[in-house]
Design a protein that fits this description.
There is one protein chain. The chain is 45% helix and 19% strand. The protein has 329 residues and is of the alpha/beta class. It folds into 2 domains: 4-203, Spore Coat Polysaccharide Biosynthesis Protein SpsA, Chain A (Alpha-Beta Complex); 216-328, no CATH class. Strands 1, 2, 3, 4, 5, 6, 7, 8 and 9 form a 9-stranded mixed sheet that branches. Strand 1, helix 1 and strand 2 (33-39) form a beta-alpha-beta unit.
Amino acid sequence: MPNISVILPVYNGLPYLRDAVNSILTQSIHDFELIIINDGSTDDSEVIIKNINDPRVHYVIQSNQGLAVTLNKSVQLAKGKFIARLDQDDFMLQSRIAKQVEYLESHPDCAMVGTWSEIWVGNKPTDRKHKHPTSHEALQLELLFDNPFVHSSVMMRADVLRELGGYSEDKLRQPPEDYELWSRISRKYRVANIPEVLTVYREVEGSMSRTGDNPFLANVIQISADNLAGILGSKFSDAECYSLASIYHGRKPEKQKNKLTKSRALRMHNEAALIISGGFSQWSGEFKASYNRQQSQIKSQFMRCLLPRFLLKPTRVIKNLIKKVFLIC
């Protein structure tokens, strides 16, 4: 029985599917299974998959059911102790799986480990990278407001994933399926990122964005509010946690009897940081960096909330102009 299962959901995976599969099958470690579930693709994804001649591949085709359902079905089929993820647009560097297995084996209290990732636009590398924090404490702080993991880079313990019920299939909780699941995992177990680029993440057209009328941002705010409430307990109300999450992400919360002030919001954030990582003297460099960035974000978003909407664009232009002047000087 393989110790590792790699799960690869596919929906209209052209043109990068072949690269994704090849990056898995050519890993430096060979004893694993690759579960590919074709979620009702209408392109030639099935042709590519059926031309793969490798006994490690377990292929399933189904009618379109969405990402969360497809991922959960993959988890149900997985036989491995560890479950690694990859998206159809991305690819792994050759040593990724081996290094993640080594990390989880040597850190038995860790339930999930991601990696740093290089960002490509289509087939073109860029100089941009996702270099998220690596320690559990810094990641838990980041999770208060956002997702500090590249979904396509993670490896999880199968028993933990099943214990927690896998990805949420509640339409009011996803997307983002990943941020919601990482939040639940981190409340009970330790999580980490390997500080090495071992995954390539492609930015492609048609991906879910946080703008417009799609539910992504609203769901991020609700998950963020839940995370804040989970850390802060009864010290602050659920309404205050939701207001802080909304303001952090640039949305004015609905009117409430006790309006959240900037000083109280900063106090909430500071209290959460102390709960997560103890006194200031115990904070690591990356924890302090995350804390300071989040404090700055809260302050700047409160300033934005005070400005009338018609002044936001001119203010942004002036701010960018000042930055350019200082860079020239």
